[in-house]
Write a structure and sequence with these properties.
There is one protein chain. By secondary structure, this protein is mostly helical. It has one domain (2-120). The protein is built from five helices and no strands. It has helices at 2-25, 30-35, 48-70, 74-98, 101-120.
Length: 121
């Protein structure tokens, strides 16, 4: 079960690394493809700084999940994983309620499943 949890956590970290790249460096291209149905085209350029700030926060989530893989103490590593997966879950639930239901399924659900896997492993 621990191996499955580790794989899912690594995939979640990679997903958020992609989000960092999209929001910080490709907001007007990849961001448009992702959020084009939610946000009018003319708003991408003026919101570039806001998106980059959001991307930076996602970078902290990636850093926390990656950090959990280098902690030698398994209890401490799991506590760090639970904290960052909890942050992602809350952000995904909030985004699903306020922005797009897709965010719930793409971000919150994997993190919630990750929490369950960490707890049962």
């Amino acid at each position: 079960m621990q191996v499955l949890a580790n794989i899912l956590i690594a995939l979640i970290a990679l997903e958020h690394l992609y989000i960092v790249w999209m929001e910080m460096f490709a907001w007007e291209t990849a961001g448009k493809k992702t959020f084009g149905s939610t946000l009018p085209d003319q708003l991408f350029q003026p919101t570039k700084g806001l998106a980059a700030n959001q991307g930076l926060y996602n970078g902290f989530l990636v850093a926390g999940l990656v950090w959990s893989f280098v902690i030698a103490d398994p209890i401490w590593a799991n506590n760090i994983r639970l904290f960052f997966l909890g942050c992602i879950s809350i952000a995904g639930i909030y985004g699903g309620l306020t922005s797009s239901r897709k965010i719930y399924f793409v971000q919150a659900m994997p993190a919630i499943i990750g929490i369950i896997l960490v707890l049962v492993s």
